[in-house]
Amino acid sequence: MSRFFIIIIGIFLISCSEVNNPQPKEPKNKEYSKYLQNYRLWQKQNIKNYSFKVKKDCSCKKTPLTKVIVKDRFVKKAINLETKKPIKNIEGVNSIDDYFVVINKSLQKNFNIKVNYNLKYHYPQKIIIDDNNTLIIKDFRLLK
To answer: Which pTM was predicted?
Structure first.
């Protein structure tokens, strides 16, 4: 009878430990899952040299359509396409990798964010944060 009691106690303890230590689960936020998947696929391609056009519409201000040239993953040049003049201070100009950081920080802060990713290269094509800040990336091109 005592062996039976020990077996029952053992089964009870095992089942309790499974309740107290559940297996890790996928993030509940679908945007975070999409972000992780696309960021990993973007990184896996090891794209270092590219150009794209970007347009930002924020509640605070609108920025002109800008062509961004990235070499070795760093922004090397940016051109205001409305004036056709280079942007002198490129510190505030982002690469695709920088936009992935923006997405990650926005998700960590639980902002209302929606992102559409490019199906071929997996970069973010459209980012909407809190329904009033929109960023659109278009004309992405690989460079040598």
So the answer is: 0.77
